[in-house]
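A note from the maintainers: we've had questions about how concatenated examples are separated. There is no special marker in the raw files; a new sequence line simply starts the next protein. For clarity in this README we add a label.
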Amino acid sequence: MSAVVKLSSPETREFWEIPVLFEDEHLLALDKPAGLLTSPDRYDPRRPNLMKLLHTAIAAGKPWARERGLTYLSNAHRLDLETTGVLLLAKSKPVLVKLADLFGTTHVVKEYLALVHGAPLQDQWEVRAPLAAHPTRPGLMRVDPQHGKKSATICEVLERFRSFTLLRCRLLTGRTHQARVHLRHVGLPLVGDALYGGQPLLLSQLKPEYRLKPGRTERPLLSRPALHAERLSLPHPVTGATVQITAPWPKDLTVAVKYLRRFAALPSPSAPETGAPPAPSDNQPTAGYKNEL
């Protein structure tokens, strides 16, 4: 059976080969690429989205769909446009209903890799800050203590660099833009996340005596929000057995970390801190963080 799902958009002349990360008779997990919507965008419905492309391919009897006997696929959750990694799909409506119930509980573990600006003082902490849609900026979220929905994210430092940190974030709730807003809230915006205060990662920022050839424009190592859905763990909606799905690092994040290790490594490991940072004040970055932007 094909290890990739091949999709194309005649309107935009784009083509994708999307790796299959996990599959059985009930579930299909894909490694979503950056730049592809999960579902239709309410603000730009003409933009290609994964679910429409999948449904079109199934209706057309594409080889990867035909060999699986697929007549149905539906997503149990979403990933943002530029977020890469594990996306889980149901192969039938009854399984989708069970998945939807599971995703509303704490039984589903969602772990993300995040490359951020700044240096947290602690190696592990939790952010609890309610989130709501921004009242005047469509498509954005913000911390809203009065009207926001309960949201919680556990963050752990994986690797520290000069002015940057690689984190693993475990989402205990599933709000829109949750990791992005929570990280910005504590003064650690995602690299490349222009909506929430992040900047692209440039080699010229890292490499001493960087020289660009005349007439050339520097291309960022990372220009999208540096967020990757690395791991998803949940009880199988039919069998109850634990399912763990992992997505390999995307190429741009791999290259970015490679150059950070080469040119922005810290001279010696910092001593681990204990405890958690103080609770964030309303709509302000958490005190106790060293923001090196």
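[label: protein 2]
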Amino acid sequence: MILSIFKISWLALAWLDLIFLTTLLYALSFLPNKKTKIWYSHLFQYWCKIFVRGLGIDLKLHQHYLGTLPKTYILIGNHPSAAEDVCMPALFKAKFLAKIEVKDWWIVGRIGKAAGTLYVKREEKSSRQEASDMLINTLKSGHPVGIYPEGGCKGRRIFTPFRYGAFEISLKTGVPILPVFIYYEAQEDFEWHNQHLLQKLWMIVCSRNRTAHYIIFDPIYPEGFQSKEAFCTHVQNLYLKWQEKYLI
């Protein structure tokens, strides 16, 4: 009984914090970018952490790599749920590539744009090229970027084939791929089925098991790969192997 009251109180405080921070970030998003870009992304990451807490997600980070991570990297991950949109930036200070529709999401879209999220029209070649150029420039400035090589949120199982974008950029810049394998213990509750976003978030909040696992593996450097196709196939096969291990 006492534990239940504590959990409810904890979630209530998290949602109060989230409402306050959302209001603040939304208001600050109207300021000129040059006045906010230094600190807005830090505040955005904290907002994502509070969002994760408000959803009641037990976010577990597993560091399955040797040594330390490079300062600049191309973060990739599988994309089974809408939860990654806040869980990934809560864990990593990267500029993420998102579909252009996210830019128009109510309140959240404006906050993401102000935080430096990059956007692409996946069906337009010119937009994909422009997004690639923006990602390369971001990496050259020393900032990590995040890309989902499945090309969107495709469900709880790995969607193949992976798209070549992240691997082509890695070959062009020499920046390594940092792979993260994501899985949720309540896979069906978290899996995206093209529901309305609020409906999906409510399903997550109501799930009886909100444990999320984010496993970071060793960075994969582009040296030794002769083409983006070979690089992509190698990494895709790793994800299929991890799927066999972690998704029963």
